[in-house]
Design goal:
The protein is an alpha+beta fold and about 100 residues long. About 15% of the residues lie in helices and about 25% in strands.
Amino acid sequence: MAHFAWLDEHNKVYQVSVVNNSDIDDLPYPESEPVGITYLTSVHGDGIIWKQTSYHANFRGKYAGVGDTYDAELDEFVSPPAPPDPIDPPDPIEE
């Protein structure tokens, strides 16, 4: 199985789709990417940005997840920053 990330206009991962190996002619990455994009375009239509991702993180840094961002300069998927630790409320002031 091959996995492809659907990117929005800000390169954020909107969805990850699975494509059967037979639909990518059993090709390895990177040869499989344009074949998979052609297949997904036939299913979902034009105007969608697709990038292949590796379930085992063999390329593009990590497996793309919804909310991740694709960094074109690094050619990698990047996780969003972790939320800051919650701040403990101050102790009440005694009067």
